[in-house]
Design a protein that fits this description.
The protein has 364 residues and is an alpha/beta fold. It is built from 16 helices and eight strands. The strands form two sheets. A four-stranded parallel β-sheet has the order 1-3-5-8. The radius of gyration is 20 Å and the shape is globular.
Amino acid sequence: MNTPDSLNSTDPPLSMPSTPPWLQDCINFIEIGKITLILVLSCSSGRAFAAGGDIVALYRFINQGNMEACKELARTVYSFIYMLGTYMKPHVALLNGITMGGGGGISIPGTFRVATDKTVFAIPEVLIGFHPDAAASFYLSRLPGHLGEYLTLTGEKLNGVEMVACGLATHYSLLAKLPLIEEQLRKLVTDDPSVIETTLEQYSDLVKPGGCSVLQRLEVVDKCFCHDTVEEIVDALEVAASETKELWCISTLNRLKEASPLSLKVSLRSIREGRFQTLDQCLLREYRMTLQAISKQISNDFCEGVRARVVDKDMAPKWDPPTLENVSQDMVDRYFLPLSEFEPDLELPTKSREAFLDRSMVGS
């Protein structure tokens, strides 16, 4: 993932049309064989672990009319996330920097995630007219209470301490210790998870979120974000803001107003459905939603969001529809429809791999 110019994008090289068979065969061979191997995901550039997909490249493909490249990109990334998420031997991700979008998808469903004092986690897709994809609807929906809805609809950041506290990460260590952790992992001659955990704990620090953290406000988060609709969530936040005069309530409301109204409604439903789905079911649904988002048949919000925030950087997207009231139920429903008989669905090797069981990664 050492592509610092794109903050270690999770997108494969354009010359790689799909997840290469040799990689699938290698993973399968390691899993069923007697080879002792610990899969460690890390990067050498300091700013980011992985900031997700290259949305500018996707934006350009769409504007060029190269939809097949967009679909192949999504199929490759989602398939790779599934392979890593169902990998049956220890999987250690060292989250040294920005961890967003696909960066969360390739790490959080794994066995161990080490956050640091430089880790910044967010799923800001609603701010670019998209939806929480790359398995985000799977792992965010399993966070305590309605924290997943909050993170999804606001795109707000968590630091490394907060990631550990809510279960997105399993360990916390200062960035300076990561070379020592990698060195010790290389020396291990076992892939026993308990031994790996003991090794990670030797370099872990005990920390707790500060007083300004959203994790100190979980009661109000649950009270406001438990509602069935985005409109009700906004109303609840407005009531809380008027009663408490808390800056947090006001800033959260402002954050919601920055997002695409259509994306807010689609994303809320996605998280709610993901709570009752397996990893493969979430990825399949997210793939269908992604195809709808990039097709421009329902809205141009994704391209408009990328243009406003990343390409032109005027930070003034013109959302369509412009308000929550203008988002029809039919528009939301279309994101969740099966693909047409002429459109290939995402195919994951579910039959050849054990059914994915929830690991103790979140909420425990």
